[in-house]
Amino acid sequence: MLKIPYARQEISEADIQAVCEVLRSDWLTQGPAIERFEEAVAQYCGCPHAVSACNATSALHLACRALGLSSGDLLWTVPNTFVASANCALYCGAQVDFVDIDPHTYNLCVQNLEQKFKAAAAHGKLPKILVAVDFSGLPCDMKSIARLAGEYGVRVIEDASHAVGAEYEGEKVGSCRYADVTIFSFHPVKIITTGEGGLALTRDAEIAAKMRLLRSHGITRDSDRMTGPSEGPWYYQQIDLGYNYRLTDIAAALGHSQLQRIGEFVRRRRTLADRYHRLLAKLPLRTPAQEGTWESAWHLYVIQLELDRLKKTRRQVFERLRSKGVLVNVHYIPVHLQPYYRAMGFKEGDFPNAERYYAAAISLPMYYGLSDQEQDQVVETLSEGLA
Ligand SMILES: *Cc1c(COP(=O)(O)O)cnc(C)c1O
């Protein structure tokens, strides 16, 4: 039977070769492949510092710690994201609140943010950090977000887990023009993969150094950072409470090899998105927004069913697609409605745009290796299911 996943990695012979070379080398971790990968990503994004990590979740945690988030602090993000964008605050003992999304882009709504900042400033309850998520690969309105955050003294993390290869106002996402730190994920469903892997970009050398320190136990071998003199060539000091969040050289070599084809990967995704727009235009659904100068990386292609024009529920449409081998998905269950977050007092109705969006959303298959014929089959199966 037909089986078309919603996402899938693309691995070439060159990728396999790159991994094999590391396996034959002296270094499986903490070797030269890490720096090579970090430098390549930094150069690609036009950003001076790139700090790799074992996944994006740990990179988010490192970023929060490096920006000084701790207990008593507050972090804001959007409900329409993966739980990791919010959990990073809880790891630091901080609290989370959400800003509702824009019903057109499904990204953070700048008007909501402005109002919420005003109200929070009046009550003395401003967040320390705002995590803006480039949902589906479409960049947020980062310029407006950075301007507002700057006015209120709030630091900005751009969770660009979906947006590796996307462009915002002529620059690659990851340039950190409008963010203190930008986060990438290299999970196999994302644009390029290292198996598990993530990365944090920043223009601030101190933040980068802090993230590097915390990535490796909070241990330094730099005598300038030690308290008291070094006791010898073997000597190191733990000067903060860090973690082991390191990426392996095996993964970094895969990432470096994948990065060579990112242009091709994103171009194909854009072609597929254009085809979906055309092929789906007459169906009772809304296709995703395409903002003029902001080029999505098209990690996800999410449709919104026009449920009032259908005799079927989202669940019926979804289950029929799955039963026909079109392995659709849903992104995202609003984070504030997860039991763990409900237990903090969040409830239905708190963020109506994200909830309405969720009720009608289906993510269609979208990945480099999806052929035109397979995409046609997806559309055909969907349109039968909507009839
Ligand atoms: C995938 C994802 C993450 C987490 O990425 P990992 O590399 O799996 O830890 C974080 N935020 C968003 C928006 C994601 O999609």
Describe the structure.
The longest helix has 19 residues, at 262-280. By secondary structure, this protein is α/β, with parallel strands linked by helices. It has helices at 13-23, 32-45, 56-66, 84-91, 110-122, 142-151, 205-215, 249-259, 262-280, 314-323, 339-342, 352-360, 372-386; strands spanning 4-5, 49-53, 74-77, 95-98, 129-133, 155-159, 167-168, 171-172, 181-185, 198-202, 219-220, 237-238, 285-286, 294-295, 301-305, 326-327, 361-364. It is built from 13 helices and 17 strands. It starts with a strand and ends with a helix. The protein is 38% helix and 15% strand. Helix 1 packs antiparallel against helix 8 (249-259) and helix 3 (56-66) crosses helix 4 (84-91). Pyridoxal-5'-phosphate is lined by residues 55-57, 81-82, 84-85, 133, 159, 161-162, 185, 187, 198.
Task: Give the SSE layout.
Elements: E1 4-5, H1 13-23, H2 32-45, E2 49-53, H3 56-66, E3 74-77, H4 84-91, E4 95-98, H5 110-122, E5 129-133, H6 142-151, E6 155-159, E7 167-168, E8 171-172, E9 181-185, E10 198-202, H7 205-215, E11 219-220, E12 237-238, H8 249-259, H9 262-280, E13 285-286, E14 294-295, E15 301-305, H10 314-323, E16 326-327, H11 339-342, H12 352-360, E17 361-364, H13 372-386
Parallel strand pairs: 1-16, 3-4, 3-5, 5-6, 6-9
Antiparallel strand pairs: 2-10, 7-8, 7-14, 9-10, 11-12, 13-15, 15-17
Pyridoxal-5'-phosphate (PLP) is lined by residues 55-57, 81-82, 84-85, 133, 159, 161-162, 185, 187, 198.
